[in-house]
Design a protein that fits this description.
Layout: H1 2-22, H2 28-49, E1 56-62, E2 69-72, E3 76-77, E4 85-89, H3 97-100, E5 109-118, E6 121-129, H4 147-155, H5 171-177, E7 184-189, H6 195-209, H7 211-214, E8 219-222, H8 226-232, H9 235-238, E9 244-247, H10 264-271, H11 275-285, E10 294-298, E11 301-305, H12 307-319, H13 324-352, H14 373-385, H15 387-396, H16 402-411, H17 413-420, H18 426-432, H19 444-455, H20 460-485, H21 498-501, H22 504-515, H23 519-525, E12 533-536, H24 544-553, E13 559-563, H25 577-585, E14 589-594, E15 596-597, H26 602-615, E16 623-624, E17 633-636, H27 642-653, E18 658-662, H28 667-673, E19 681-685, H29 686-689, E20 694-700, H30 702-708, H31 712-720, E21 723-731
Parallel strand pairs: 2-4, 7-13, 7-14, 8-9, 8-12, 12-13, 15-16, 17-21, 18-19, 18-20, 20-21
Antiparallel strand pairs: 1-2, 1-5, 3-4, 5-6, 10-11
The structure holds adenosine-5'-triphosphate (ATP).
Length: 741
């Protein structure tokens, strides 16, 4: 019945879309109407298309309610009659008992049913009777809801792409997903506790619940690398969401592709908060006062200024406290004034050179200027148009882009020393130094962003034109809204009155979106875009400078920060949330914890616990929900060919995914050794595997992984906890205490 309803709705929407597209759009007003309507219908169609698999996955029977409630991936309503809900969207408040009801606290629910479907066929049902009398033995110690369905979901083979968990969200996760929009929520949880899943479902929930606030500004989801973004890329569309930008920090400066990699040392230095002072000084260093007299060629002549004249112009510009490129105008004005004065004096001298003294007439002031104000204006104009003058001023206070300044800074030992003397050590500077043509790295991006703020952009003319355009669009959209208000034929059934949902501003933006780009796409192009909400995954990896960039993108501080400080591998990453976030939000953040591990079975977690103990003996591993009966295996590296070991793991995974995790120094060699294994096997460093999971994992040379970085034990803990089924360890010389046996 629900699928029939889905088909019917699809058909209606298609018809409406067709009609909208066929409408003439001869006047600008008509074409705006057409675009708005067709974008609404497009969006709805995409939504309807993304819920085909597992449309309905739950049913609730209540003690005191006549009919059952069905829970699914989106809401469907009875089209005729009184618009009764046929299927509840999982995010709707009425669907909550499906995730929260327990035998001890049944919330009026008599029975919870998990429905498994394949295409449009029901292939399985799991019932839980939430009746205290029937509760004995029903609830496991961990208080899991829908345990059978959950375990079935967890046993499923991994495909290399993350799937949604709407059918089996657990109570502690649900609580975080539906937390309010405002403020900073920090979700701390061990590996496999569903932090990523929770973060993405929270994005979908927030967009559903706070659509009006969020649709135009969009939601930014930040992940550690592009492999990870590909891994999670499919989860949101399957939840039916648009308006979400997935990005790494390295992709957040439009126009820059960070293709290079930093050494550990460079990454650490670039992430330090003191870099703000270094960059501020580097900018100030570009505002120069010459040591000697300053000479400017002009009009077959040379104008000479004393250094203190330049200094006064510089100080005047600095006193404005405006960014470098904007304060430059003040500097240039002051310099042109001074040069005009010099030029005028020169001209007067020239005028009278060789001319015999003319006796003064009565009342004439011997010191009165010969050139009048009009002459000076003329001279100033000529000066301001002179190429040589412009070049000379550019030397003293150049127009700068963030790219140029950073390139120059890292390529020139003198500049670097001047900007960082007393702030960085010689070793730090050595780590930063690089040739001018080096590729950008992810660690450069927050520095470029900082510089963009310090330098500013002199775009007054451009901004004014844009604002004028926006004003026109808004006025226009208001007109269109009036008309649409009267034409309900154009609207979706569940959007009774469009003005309830869209105000003119949002409509104008949507207009632009429909004809050009989505909010996410526009955000990706605009460095100064601010998002309605920002979600940061693997947030422990971010440096202080990364956080500064993100805070600029989210002035409302509506954020979800997800991570595990026990898994920090990045040299500039966090060991404590308080230390990292305190700088930006003080103690105005709320900590939520996840405690159950859905990924890694008990047998593997016992081993991972030993690595965690080395990180910090006070830390506890999360409790695993599953046992597989298969302990991790270990063998000496090199005893047998790696390729045949991996073949066995691929066979054991039986169509699932396998990863070989290696120390960075061995990556190239192992990749070529396993060349030919194709897509079945991923060879990755631990940093690359962060946040991912595989059915089988082989960790190669764990002792080298530990030795490779000061956070080596964290890395090993991450490596061990990537497996959903099997873990193997190939050790070389010696071995860290936490290899088994
Ligand atoms: N309620 C749930 N129902 C079904 N599967 C779940 C549930 N919660 C988590 N999972 C699954 O557990 C696995 C681990 O989840 P996820 O990757 O979100 O964990 P994580 O806390 O981000 O881990 P890490 O810290 O290692 O990155 C995923 O396969 C996810 O789909």
């Amino acid at each position: 019945m629900l699928y029939r309803r889905l088909d019917a709705e699809r058909e209606t929407t298609e018809r409406r879309l067709e009609r909208a597209l066929r409408s003439p759009g001869e006047t600008p007003q008509e074409s705006a109407e057409r675009d708005a309507a067709s974008s609404l219908h497009h969006e709805r169609l995409a939504q309807l298309g993304s819920v085909e698999q597992g449309l309905c996955f739950g049913r609730l029977d209540f003690h005191d309610q006549a009919g059952p409630a069905y829970i699914g991936r989106l809401g469907l309503f009875d089209s005729d009659g009184d618009y009764e809900p046929l299927l509840l969207d999982w995010r709707a408040p009425a669907a909550r008992p499906f995730y929260l009801a327990t035998a001890a606290s049944p919330e009026g629910v008599r029975r919870r049913r998990h429905i498994r479907t394949l295409s449009r066929k029901v292939v399985g049902l799991d019932d839980e009777i939430l009746d205290l009398r029937a509760a004995d033995g029903q609830q496991a110690d961990l208080g899991l809801a829908g345990e059978a369905a959950l375990l079935a979901a967890l046993e499923r083979k991994r495909t290399g792409e993350m799937g949604d968990i709407v059918a089996t969200i657990q109570a502690e996760q649900d609580d975080i997903i539906r937390d309010e929009l405002g403020g900073v929520v920090v979700v701390q949880g061990g590996p496999g506790t569903g932090k990523t899943a929770v973060a993405l479902h929270r994005a979908a929930y927030l967009l559903y619940t706070y659509r009006q606030q969020l649709a135009s500004r969009g939601v930014l989801v930040v992940g550690p690398n592009s492999t990870f973004l590909r891994y999670i890329g499919q989860v949101l569309p399957s939840l039916g969401e648009t308006g979400v930008l997935l990005s790494t920090i390295g992709q957040l400066f439009p126009g820059i592709r960070a293709r290079g990699a930093d050494s550990r040392e460079a990454a650490e230095v670039k992430g330090r908060p003191v870099m703000v002072d270094v960059l501020t000084r580097a900018v100030a260093d570009r505002q120069r006062v010459p040591e000697e007299k300053f000479e400017v060629a002009f009009d077959d002549d040379v104008l000479v200024l004393d250094p203190d004249v330049v200094e006064r112009a510089r100080d005047k510009a600095r006193r404005t406290r405006r960014p470098h490129n904007l304060a430059r105008r003040v500097f240039v004005d002051a310099m042109l004034d001074a040069l005009t004065e010099r030029a005028a004096v020169r001209m007067e001298v020239d005028l009278f050179e060789g001319v015999p003294d003319i006796p003064l007439e009565a009342g004439e002031d011997p010191d009165a200027p010969v050139l009048d104000a009009g002459d000076r204006v003329e001279i100033r104009k000529e000066l301001s148009e002179s190429g040589t003058v412009a070049a000379a001023l550019d030397e003293l206070w150049p127009k700068l882009t963030p790219q140029r300044l950073l390139r120059d800074l890292f390529a020139d030992a003198g500049r670097l020393l001047s900007a960082s003397d007393g702030l960085l050590s010689d070793d730090d500077r050595g780590a930063l130094k690089r040739p001018a043509r080096s590729p950008w790295t992810p660690g450069d991006v927050p520095l470029l962003d900082e510089l963009a703020e310090l330098l500013g952009e002199d775009d007054a003319a451009e901004r004014e034109a844009r604002e004028r355009r926006e004003r026109e669009e808004r006025a226009y959209a208001e007109g269109v809204l009036d008309i649409m208000d009267q034409d309900e034929e154009l609207l979706d059934e569940d959007q009774i009155n469009i003005a309830d949902i869209l105000d003119a501003e949002l409509f104008a933006e949507r207009q632009e979106r429909s004809s050009h780009l989505t909010a996410a796409q526009r955000a990706a192009r605009d460095r100064t875009w601010t998002f309605g909400h920002v979600i940061v995954d693997e947030a422990q990896e971010l440096s202080a400078m990364d956080w500064r960039l993100l805070m600029r993108r989210c002035p409302s501080r509506s954020m979800t920060v997800v991570g595990d400080v026990a898994q920090t591998g990045a040299p500039g990453g966090a060991s404590s949330w308080r230390d990292m976030l305190g700088r930006y939000v003080g103690d105005r953040w709320r900590l939520r914890e996840l405690t159950v591990n859905y990924r890694t079975p008990v047998e593997i977690m016992n081993l991972a616990a030993e690595a965690l103990h080395e990180v910090d003996p006070r830390l506890r591993v999360p409790t695993s929900v599953r046992e597989t009966g298969v302990p991790p295996w270990r063998a000496p590296l090199g005893e047998r060919p790696l390729a045949s070991i991996v073949d066995e793991e691929v066979a054991a995974a039986d169509g699932g995914t396998v990863a070989v995790l290696v120390p960075a120094s061995r990556l190239g060699a192992v990749r070529s050794e396993l060349d030919g294994h194709g897509d079945a096997v991923s060879v990755l460093t631990v940093a690359e595997a962060k946040g991912l999971e595989f059915d089988g994992v082989v960790v190669l040379a764990p002792e080298e992984i530990v030795a490779e970085s000061p956070r080596g034990w964290n890395d090993l803990y991450v490596a061990y906890t990537r497996a959903t089924q099997r873990l193997g360890i190939l050790y070389s010389a010696g071995r860290p205490t936490s290899t088994p046996g």
